[in-house]
Structures are given as C-alpha cells and as structure tokens.
Specification:
It is found in: Cell membrane. InterPro entries: 2C_sensor_his_kinase, HATPase_C_sf, HATPase_dom, His_kinase_dom, HisK_dim/P_dom, HisK_dim/P_sf, RegB, Sig_transdc_His_kin-like_C. It is a multi-pass membrane protein. The protein is of the alpha+beta class and about 450 residues long. The chain is about 60% helix and about 10% strand. The protein is built from 13 helices and nine strands. The strands form three sheets. A five-stranded mixed β-sheet has the order 4-6-7-9-8. A two-stranded antiparallel ribbon has the order 1-2. A two-stranded antiparallel sheet has the order 3-5. Strand 1 and strand 2 form a beta hairpin. The radius of gyration is 35 Å and the shape is elongated.
Length: about 450
Amino acid sequence: MGPRMTELSDAQGRMWDHDLANPPPPEPIRIRTLVLLRWFAIGGQLAAVVVAWFMGIGFVKTPVLLLIAASVAMNLWLFLRPPKRTSPGRAVAQLSFDLVQISTLMALTGGMANPFALLVLAPVTIAAASLNARQTLALGLATVALITLAAMLALPLREPDGTVLRMAPILALGHWVALVIGVVFFAGYAHRVTAELSATSNALFATQMALSREQRLQHLGGVVAAAAHEMGTPLATIKLIAAELADELQDRPDLREDAIALRHAADRCAQILRSMGRAGKDDLHMRAAPLQAVLEDAAAPHAARGPEVEIAADDLVIRRDPAIIHALRNLIQNAVDFAASRVVIDTDLTASSLTVTVRDDGPGFPSALLSRIGVPYLSRRTEAQRGSYEGMGLGLFIAKTLLERSGARLSFANGGPGAIVSVRWPIERIEAEDRLALSQNPTISG
C-alpha cells in the first residue's frame, strides 16, 4: 500500500493501542442499588423491632423508630430527587449514613449483646466491592471506631420482668474482636475479588479491541482492492482522452506537453492501483496460507528491532486467521523484547497435532511468576512505566486468550537460557485446504 495508507494505518494503530492501554473506568455503584439494599435493611430492622416488642424485650423504642424513619426519609428523598450520575463521593456519603444509622441502632439495642450486630459489616463490604482502596480503608476505620463506641456506650436490653440482659465481659470482648476481624476480612476479600474481576474484564476488553483492530486492518485490504477495481475504468478513459488530445495538439506545443504529462500521470496512477489491488486482494481473499508465510507475517513488525528472528516451519497450509496472527505476533514481540541476540521460531508437525515454539536467548521468565503467566496485569507498573498495554502482562493474556479460542493449548517454560512458549493445535483445528485462494481460472477449451 502507498505511504499515505501506511500512515493512516499507523495512526489508527496508535489510537487502538491508546484505547487498549486506557480502558474506560468502571462505574461506581448506582444509588438505585444502595436505595434497594437500604429498603431491605429497613424491612429487617422493623421486623426485629416488632418481634422484640411482642417478646416483651425492653429497649428505647422511640429513638430506634426515629432512626429507622431517618432511613425511610433518606430513601424517599433519593427517590424524589435522584442524582443524574453516581459519583464515588456520593456513594461514600450514602454508605457513611448507613454505617452511622446501623451503629447507633446497635448502641441503642444492647451493643455486643445484640445478635444482629454483624449487620454493621454491610456498608464496608459494599464499599470494598465498588470503591477504591483509600475510600474502603476510610470506611473500614470508621466502622471499627463506631463498633467500639457502640460497645462502650451501649444501652442494655431488658427481659419482660425487668432483668438486664448482660453478656459476660469475655464474650463481649470476643464479639468485638470478631466484628473487627470481620471488617478486615470481608473488606479485604471483597476488594481483592472485585479487583481481579475488573482486571479480567479490562483484559478481555483489550483482547476484543486488539482482535477488532487486526480484522479492521485486514479488511482494509478489501476496500483498497475494490477502490483499485472501480477506479481502473475512469483512469483508462483519462489516459485515452489525453493521448487523443496530444495527437490533435501538434500545432500547440505548450498544450501538447500538458496532455502528455496528464497521460503519464494516469499511467502512474494505474501502476499504483494495480499494486494496491494485488495487495488488497491478497488480504481480502487469502483465507489459507503456508505455515511459513503466516509465521513471517506475524514476525514482520519485529524483524528489524535488533535480535535476529529465525523461522523454520514445516510444509503445511493453515488457516490465515487474524486472531492467530495477532496472538503469535504478541508472543514474538515478548521474545524480541527480552532476547539478547536471537529468537527462534520452529514447528513440530505430527499426524495429530501442530506445535509452534517461540524461544529466545534472554533471561527467561521469572521463576516466581512462571505459574501465573497469562494472567492479566501480571506486573504492577506505574502509569508512567507502562507506555503500552503489552507492558502490563496484557500481551501474553491476549495471545493466550486468542490462541485458546482457536483450539490451541499453551505452555510456558525456561530452557537454558531464555524463555520457551509452545503452542499446540489439534491438526484438524489449524490445517486448511491445500490450495491457493487466488489461483488462476482453468482454461476451458472445446
């Protein structure tokens, strides 16, 4: 393709890489969700009050009912004046309100002796699943402080005969310790699981974007082929008219030179379009290719980056799938990035499988991370260090995901020296029909 088309492809590639490195941030928890959870909490609190009332357990009923009414009023206010968009600050404010309300209820209904005291863990758990670590830590510390105040300032519950319901000091201390441990455990567990799910989601988004980019670049060849075909006729007409004008303007040398220049320009355009059309047809129609050609296509962007890239492939025609090419390109890029001087790509063909091995002479995979290779965001670099998505462990994740979707199985190892990545397909999942996609039409005689 021409230089202008190459520049457009490079610009588009940089745009896609920027999108992969900066996936859209996840939305914080919706206020509607917090309101719904609060309605469940209000229902449970009212049920507990009614049951205790019928059992004759003594507690300060008016303050308790006023606290429940405050939650009802907050929900009604949010229903009548819903925010246009939930912000992390607004979510923190709502969870803080719930935390204060539950802690105060706990203090008014026996403190550590209240069997429903564990519900004070709900706000910090929700925060850990939807907010960042700093906001979760702040709510966690506030939860511990309010649990402690509720234990120290608790109003006791009373039996129907007026006897105070007391918990043994050692049991009260144990209950307090259990709640504090619960804050740390539930918040840490929820935050870790949510972070891993978010990382996997972002990595899958990056995989889809990378594959989409590869397919777009490949389909661009089809557009070029169609353009070359459609523009051939008007260019031929321009060339013909220019030639006729040159013949008719024998007595006007100045105009005749312009007509000749126009004809030469048309010839040049025709040559460019023929070249672009051939490349475009190859990209559009070639669905099968020799294994050597596919590996060379995958390695081409990294062949001149320093380390020597050697390819030795078996004689086999395979599917020319953009996903497979992009995945192999990521594996080769990783090998070139860490190789000292050489990257070797070889294959092993049997009756039942095809194995492609990429090895380099670099330091190899870190032993501590070898079992986790292929996990998204494996290395924790700062934003300034990342630069592109390949540097965050996403390159190997994308390669692994795309290759596994094609039926392959990957293995990672170190092989004295350097890293070794093996990709193995069942032969029926990778082999293609042994024919050229654009072979000449047969001659029909007779």
